[in-house]
Amino acid sequence: IFDITSNDYIGSAKVAQRLTLIEKITGEPISIFASHWPSLLNVAPDDYRRHHLASTLRDWVLKTTDGSENLIKAIMMGDYNAEPYAKHMQEHLFTSRHRELATKRENMFYNPTWSLLVEDPRGLKGTYYYSGGVFAKWLAFDQIFVTSSLLKGDSWKLSNQNPMVPEMLELRELIRSTKTKFDHMPIYVTIERAV
Questions:
Q1: Contact status, residue 186 vs residue 166, Cβ threshold 8 Å
Q2: Count of CB atoms situated within 10 Å of the CB of 41
Q3: Which of 27, 54, 125, 167 has the fewest Cβ atoms within 10 Å of its own Cβ atom?
Q4: pTM of the predicted model as reported, rounded to 2 decimal places
């Protein structure tokens, strides 16, 4: 595990923790970048620090190679305390909701989390519950992005699975309750190996 930090005018902030896994059969590395970025209560949505965090994460992912200058397959995940359409998520981290577009551009990350902005077939939406929300109570602050190498047909690739949030209705009720400190649903994606 490797800590990635960002230094700006105010101080140091944790961008992510990088964990690299080695697939047993092929010896191929896959890196996971796990993040928990500052709350909106502490850092405003358009604060320069959010743009700095996004740019720093992007730089680290794009410079993580497998030793032969090939960009490593990578998954970024965490609580970014921002929705997928936030300016820093799209313009500084350079994420896209369009799988085909992200597949063609090695420097763009695919963000399947956009699907959490609308109700899924089970009537569920979002991952983070904010009871004081004016326009929405369930927000998509928990996100997952993947590099273009995980969208192509060789070796490991992101499955077209849906949904990203388990049903877990009991947990949703705990999250809505004012008596608990739970406020996030878990999210996941599936990667599968082409054989």
A1: yes
A2: 7
A3: 27
A4: 0.91
Residue pLDDT, tens place only, 108-156: 999 999 998 888 777 778 899 888 888 888 899 999 999 999 998 678 8
**DSSP H or E segment with residue 152:** none
Q: Up-side HSE of residue 74: CA atoms within 13 Å toward CB? A: 27
In the chain, the largest separation of any two C-alpha atoms, in whole Å, equals 52
Q: Which residue has the tokens 């994460």?
A: 57
Strands 12-22 and 29-36 turn out to be antiparallel
pLDDT, tens only, 60-94 = 999 987 777 777 899 999 999 999 999 999 999 99
Q: Within 13 Å and on the Cβ side, how many CA atoms surround 106?
A: 8
How many CB atoms within 10 Å of residue 124? 18
